Amino acid sequence: MTSMDYDLTILGGGSGGLTAARVAASLGARVLLIDKERLGGDCLYTGCVPSKSLIHVARQVYQARTATRLGLTSDNVEIDMARVAESIQGVIKQVQDAEQVYTDDVTVKFGTVSFQSPTALLINDEQITSRATIIATGSHPARLPIEGLAEIGYLTNEDVFQLTNLPASLLIVGGGPVGVELGQALARLGVQITLIQGPERILPREEPEVSVAIAEALQLENVQVVTNARVLRAERHGGKKSVMVKQGEQMVVFEADEILLAAGRQPNVGGLNLDTIGVTYNEQGIKVNDYLRTSVANIFALGDVIGGYLFTHVAAYQAGVAVRNALLPVGKKKVDYRVVPWCTFTDPEAAHIGLTYTEARQRHRQVRVVTFPWADIDRAQTEHATTGFIKLILAGKKEEIVGAHMVGAHAGELLGEIALAMQNHLTVSTMFATIHPYPTYHTGLQQALFEAYLTSSQLRSNRSIVSAALRLRK
Ligand SMILES: Cc1cc2nc3c(=O)[nH]c(=O)nc-3n(C[C@H](O)[C@H](O)[C@H](O)COP(=O)(O)OP(=O)(O)OC[C@H]3O[C@@H](n4cnc5c(N)ncnc54)[C@H](O)[C@@H]3O)c2cc1C
Ligand SMILES: NC(=O)c1ccc[n+]([C@@H]2O[C@H](COP(=O)([O-])OP(=O)(O)OC[C@H]3O[C@@H](n4cnc5c(N)ncnc54)[C@H](O)[C@@H]3O)[C@@H](O)[C@H]2O)c1
């Protein structure tokens, strides 16, 4: 084989691509990272970072407005959206500077890139060759076949964080994580929100009771949640925008000042010339096998562009797997999605890891569910944040956690502990016997685990050992 310019070329410098570049460079490979415009991706500029910053601002407003229940009197909170938008851009800049280190040992190029063959790429007018390539070009907001929508215009996650004036009312199309997180945050900032969701419940990937709890939390803050409702058409009437919605057999019209489209994602595959070189893809994304290999042997893909789990931490995990498989001749690694956590950052948060109850029943013979109310966590009481629950799904003779679903303040923070336990097959008794600091929300998890132990077969066998020992003493 003739010598190649690079060992590995990575297309897309977002969450997955940046991690892949860093891992590959740390292994001593000659790495080229190409992005069409800038490094950081959706997560940094238009996703996780600005959305969590906006959610933080909205929480401050909400807490100030509800502080009277704590005996505090706060003056009317005034919101200067131009300064809020500026502060969000400031956070992005801080995170961006911290990420710079990812590319210190990597060649970075910006521009238009396309495949000429599985080993040759054209970047602007320059041809480069690479032994292997990883495609990590991410996704964009799904463009739906909603008649009239493109003509009247709408917002997406790509522009909502830059608004310096908020609309008085907003129709959000889509009740997934983007719709519910932004719906609650913008409602707290004074926008009248109508959330329109196609399926029969919001957050349909969650357990049903999680969807119910989050819908109730939104409704308590005056978000109108409309489910089983598919948006078919959009129109403008003077200064207002309206959508025609099919709800059951009925057509219903909703009207507001603006529309936010939050109805899923589509993969960024355009312009790469994938058809010519034989990389297969469909509307969900580029097809990969368990090794993240595409239909072309030396081309891998990861992150949003392959669909499935659209999360920054999953893209980063896949980066480690794809780099290893692209660079190492032996010891190929399969992806393992047994322990995937995610959190929807509403207030209370909806935290999820592993299997749902239905999935657990399909995969395990012995399945047991233990629930624990968030209100029984002392820290939750001290912070007046008592809404929610912990639902643990246990399976197998040894009673390992195979799934956990939580609604509660800071619930997402508990996922790390459960992830580590699940990854290492720790049992419930090992987990609850570990000392947790009081009073943290983690003690709530420890209490839930203790509840699980109290109703376990292990307790029954421990009881018989103790009663035998006591009999012997008599
Ligand atoms: C509003 C919102 C909030 C979110 N919040 C969270 C959250 O809290 N937690 C979480 O885990 N996930 C969250 N996500 C999802 C997360 O942003 C994505 O899963 C993650 O960014 C995917 O990483 P990626 O590397 O696949 O793509 P990206 O990070 O988007 O990176 C893709 C990169 O490819 C580049 N690119 C695109 N096309 C080309 C091309 N043709 N040539 C070269 N480069 C190209 C882009 O410029 C970009 O830099 C959120 C998403 C949204 C929309
Ligand atoms: N906290 C987080 O980790 C976080 C936050 C935001 C986004 N994300 C990621 O971003 C991805 C995209 O999120 P999303 O909320 O845009 O997509 P989504 O696919 O999760 O939810 C969109 C919802 O819109 C509905 N929908 C589609 N067309 C519709 C129509 N015409 N009328 C009414 N409803 C319609 C869909 O049925 C779906 O339930 C998610 O998969 C998630 O992984 C993660």
Provide a short characterization of the protein structure.
By secondary structure, the chain is an alpha/beta fold. The chain contains 15 helices and 21 strands.
Written account of the structure:
GO terms for molecular function: flavin adenine dinucleotide binding; NAD(P)H dehydrogenase (quinone) activity; oxidoreductase activity, acting on a sulfur group of donors, NAD(P) as acceptor. Residues 340-448 form the Pyridine nucleotide-disulphide oxidoreductase dimerisation domain. This is FAD-dependent pyridine nucleotide-disulfide oxidoreductase. This protein is of the alpha/beta class and 474 residues long. It has 3 domains: 6-141 and 266-327, FAD/NAD(P)-binding domain (3-Layer(bba) Sandwich), CATH 3.50.50; 149-263, 3-Layer(bba) Sandwich (FAD/NAD(P)-binding domain), CATH 3.50.50.60; 341-460, FAD/NAD-linked reductase, C-terminal dimerisation domain (Enolase-like, domain 1). The protein has 15 helices and 21 strands. It has helices at 15-26, 41-45, 48-65, 81-99, 149-152, 177-188, 208-220, 274-277, 312-327, 357-363, 378-382, 415-423, 428-432, 442-454, 457-473, and strands spanning 6-11, 31-35, 107-110, 113-117, 120-123, 126-135, 139-141, 169-173, 192-196, 224-226, 229-237, 240-247, 250-256, 258-261, 265-267, 299-301, 341-344, 349-354, 367-373, 389-395, 400-408. Strands 1, 2, 3, 4, 5, 6 and 16 form a 7-stranded mixed β-sheet that branches. Helix 1 runs parallel beside helix 9 (312-327), helix 3 (48-65) packs across helix 4 and helix 3 (48-65) runs parallel beside helix 6 (177-188). The longest helix is centred in the N-terminal third of the chain and has 19 residues, at 81-99. The protein starts with 5 loop residues before the first strand and ends with a helix. Bound molecules: flavin-adenine dinucleotide and nicotinamide-adenine-dinucleotide. Nicotinamide-adenine-dinucleotide is lined by residues 144, 146, 173-179, 181, 196-199, 204, 230-231, 262-265, 310-311, 342-345.
